[in-house]
């Protein structure tokens, strides 16, 4: 992995940052795509010499081909793409507007398709690669007040399987991680402000705790490595058993 090049979208915070850190620590040159210049550059400073900031808004679908082309020209190959960037919105079903629903899908689904398509073109030229998509528990079971997010993450899991079948002929593997409740600032804030939900999360998680961002990073790294060379089209819950808990 120390001779490979990776792209991690949304790699300047949370699970994306932990994933980028794993790749950088293993010697993989990692391009961190983020919308916020200051946050993305600061993250890359923390990640060290193997991290390269790319300030780009993935909802700019028309600009994605040029952005991918620039990375490819600089490196000559792109070996790993981690589609981590995404946004959420908590709102009552009947109050969600068409434009809000569309915004979630544009960020969480359309951009994933667009950047994957452009990266695949480059991977074909160089003999293959790996794509790892990030899903959610919202695609594993019904969750209230996140209709657009749930729809987007369910789409990601379907896309993962379809992409895996389409791209295996080019030596490109495509897999997906479905994180459970992971200990991040955002998750802690959400659960601490909603004690009943927090109690429900822990009561249905057999391991009785939240995961760490590094748990997701390790799973992503496994899929991207040669250790998973015969694995494609898989959706792996990393959730302490939450998705099968009773």
TrEMBL record:
PROSITE patterns: ADH_SHORT. GO terms for molecular function: oxidoreductase activity. It comes from Flagellimonas iocasae. It comes from the Bacteria. CDD domains: SDR_c. Belongs to the short-chain dehydrogenases/reductases (SDR) family. InterPro entries: NAD(P)-bd_dom_sf, Sc_DH/Rdtase_CS, SDR_fam. Pfam families: adh_short_C2. It is an enzyme of class 1 (oxidoreductase). This is SDR family NAD(P)-dependent oxidoreductase. NCBIfam families: PRK07231.1, PRK12826.1-2. Its EC number is 1.1.1.-. Keywords: Oxidoreductase.
